[in-house]
Amino acid sequence: MALFKKMDNLEEEQNTEQLNGETEHVKVLIVGSGPAGYTAAIYAARANLQPVLYEGMEPGGQLTTTTDVENYPGYPQGIQGPDMMEDFKKQAERFGTDIRFGLATAADLSQRPYTITIDDKKKIQADALIIATGASAKYLGLESEDQFKGMGVSACATCDGFFYKNQDVAVVGGGDSAAEEALYLAGICNKVYMIHRRDQLRASQIMQERVFQSENIEILWNAQTKEVLGDENGVTGVRLQKTTGEEYDISVTGFFLAIGHKPNSDIFRDYLEMDETGYIKTTPGSTHTNLEGVFAAGDVQDSIYRQAVTAAGSGCKAALDAERWLAEKEFEAKKAAQKEEA
Ligand SMILES: Cc1cc2nc3c(=O)[nH]c(=O)nc-3n(C[C@H](O)[C@H](O)[C@H](O)COP(=O)(O)OP(=O)(O)OC[C@H]3O[C@@H](n4cnc5c(N)ncnc54)[C@H](O)[C@@H]3O)c2cc1C
Question: Do domains 2-136+261-341 and 139-257 have the same CATH topology?
């Protein structure tokens, strides 16, 4: 009930840091500053929900690690990832989002309002929580791979495949995602090598069949990447090692990782339903999680599309879902108060 008493004095009470180290209370807390978080902020701020947004360890999200973004609608000439995210941020700020630097390090979602700890110190209580913490692609951990990130090394074929049109590329992995990425690239590139460390794929039977039937995909079995080769212009090839120890090079200009993603959802693990990888489960067609008042948007709940535009779309949905849920709860609280008075 405390939650809804607070709602009676929304204007004064929201987003005000209380004195004496007491916990701050906000109406809508958004965790994450990628396309999902900022879009949720734009919608929530325009709905007068005075959102507070924490940027996390990567302000602007994954797109700040890339150069050209050519598939986000509204930028006919393309745009640099960091510039695009700066635009998102400015738009969220324009409507009054309180954007703060800080990392959510713990969560207590056992009762409402929900409590999030920032940087192991500050505690914030939120009536509605929007989780937009994204998912991080897994890399092999090679120094050369790091060196050529954005210069031929990519973890997103849908995002970067077009830049390698009619060229030879390699995909690392043997699961469904790798098969999917290889097939996508096969439609754009001249030749696709699939580098797999075992002698059979882990992908589903149907995906395997599609890969085997693709004329320009060649699977390099029992092979591990030793080094990504390149020069000042980017990737030129990959050095591989067979299980026998023999090393050989292939010539490619693109090197795509497809060995999985890790959703940034660990701190919510005790409370929210997730799949085996850690993607937060939402009710189909909405951003509602299994806890009322907790919404998930963007890559943290999407193992399939993982695009800026889909993340932004679900950020919009999360803000609308939060706004409707809060309005509903406020109405219920008012009705209960009226009944009590009568
Ligand atoms: C190299 C690269 C190139 C790409 N190119 C394209 C492209 O051309 N077009 C396209 O559509 N998509 C592209 N993508 C995919 C796109 O970037 C993602 O789909 C999109 O950014 C997902 O948005 P998001 O808001 O869900 O999460 P993210 O962008 O991942 O943002 C997550 C945010 O959450 C924050 N965060 C995480 N944990 C915490 C925490 N505990 N506390 C507080 N904050 C936290 C992070 O700091 C970050 O701000 C690319 C991805 C990569 C890696």
Answer: yes
For the stretch 84-126, pLDDT in tens is 999 999 999 999 999 999 999 999 999 999 999 999 999 999 9
How many residues in the chain? 342
Query: Which residue has the CA at smallest separation from atom 15 of ligand 1?
Result: 307
* HSE (side-chain half, CA atoms, 13 Å) at 82: 7
Q: Structure tokens of 322? A: 């939060």
Residue 298 has pLDDT above 80, yes or no: yes
Question: pTM of the predicted model, to two decimals?
Answer: 0.88
Q: What is the pLDDT of residue 161?
A: 95
Give distance in angstroms: CA of 332 to centre of ligand 1. 36
Domain range summary for the chain, segments of one domain joined by +: 2-136+261-341, 139-257
d(CA 250, CA 228): 10
d(Cα 97, Cα 49) in Å, to the nearest integer?
A: 9
Q: Is the shortest distance between the CB of 71 and ligand 1 below 6 Å?
A: yes
* Contact yes or no for 43/315 (Cβ under 8 A): yes
* CA-proximal residue: ligand 1, atom 48 (nearest): 61
What dotted CATH number matches 2-136+261-341?
3.50.50.60
